[in-house]
Amino acid sequence: MKTLRRYECLESFYIDKKDDNGFSTDSEIVIEAGGVWTDSEEEYRFVGGEVRLETADGLWIELPRRMVNQYFKEQ
């Protein structure tokens, strides 16, 4: 079983919003400072990010590792 890692967002930032098929929607979503995200280290990726983070309410994002290191700290 994979370890569930928890991260807290340190600084708000924007990312491109994707539709249900993984395509850009020409809009952005804000990732709020203080939000708690989890990474179960599963290999599944929908849009090709290095790290997939999820919230308790089902929102997910995929980011390059450098962005995770820049905007999040592990709890």
- Determine the structural class based on helices, strands and strand pairing: mainly beta
Give helix % range.
Answer: under 10%
Relative strand content:
over 45%
Q: How many β-strand runs?
A: 7
Estimate the mean pLDDT confidence.
90
Largest sheet: 3 strands, antiparallel
Element-level helix/strand string: EEEEEEHE
What order do the strands of the largest sheet run in, or round the barrel if closed? 4-1-7
Q: Return Rg in Å.
A: 12 Å
As residue ranges, the low-confidence spans are none
Figure out the total of helices: 1
Please state the overall shape, judged from the principal axes of the Cα atoms.
Answer: globular
Distance N to C terminus: 20 Å
Features:
single chain, three-stranded antiparallel sheet, 7 strands, globular, 1 helix, 9% helix, two-stranded antiparallel ribbon
Give the helices and strands, then pairings.
Elements: E1 5-9, E2 13-18, E3 24-31, E4 36-39, E5 51-54, E6 60-63, H1 65-71, E7 72-74
Antiparallel strand pairs: 1-4, 1-7, 2-3, 5-6
